[in-house]
Write a structure and sequence with these properties.
Blueprint (H helix, E strand, L loop, with lengths): L3 H56 L4 H27 L1
């Protein structure tokens, strides 16, 4: 024979757990969304940086080595951003 009071307590605990899990999932989802937005912003800034490097190279006398170093640095940044974007797909 089941005790109604224990049954109500058990159901209350289940509901509390469900609500807590929903809140945690909403927090995680919100954080992931913010992270994705920040990574997209970084990707945009890296692309703008690449364009700025070419603009500077057009108007300033720089050595090919310097331009090459800048291009490699930006390429490294783009690869890092790509990895971060792939990571967000897993979230």
């Amino acid at each position: 024979m089941e005790c109604p009071r224990i049954r109500r307590l058990f159901l209350g605990l289940q509901e509390t757990r469900r609500l807590y899990c929903e809140k945690v999932m909403a927090t995680i989802s919100g954080s992931c969304f913010e992270l994705i937005n920040k990574i997209d912003s970084i990707a945009t800034n890296v692309n703008l940086l690449r364009m700025d490097i070419w603009k500077v190279a057009e108007h300033v006398t720089v050595t090919k080595d310097n331009v090459g170093v800048l291009q490699r640095n930006v390429t490294d940044l783009q690869e890092t951003v790509s990895c971060l974007q792939e990571l967000t797909m897993l979230l």
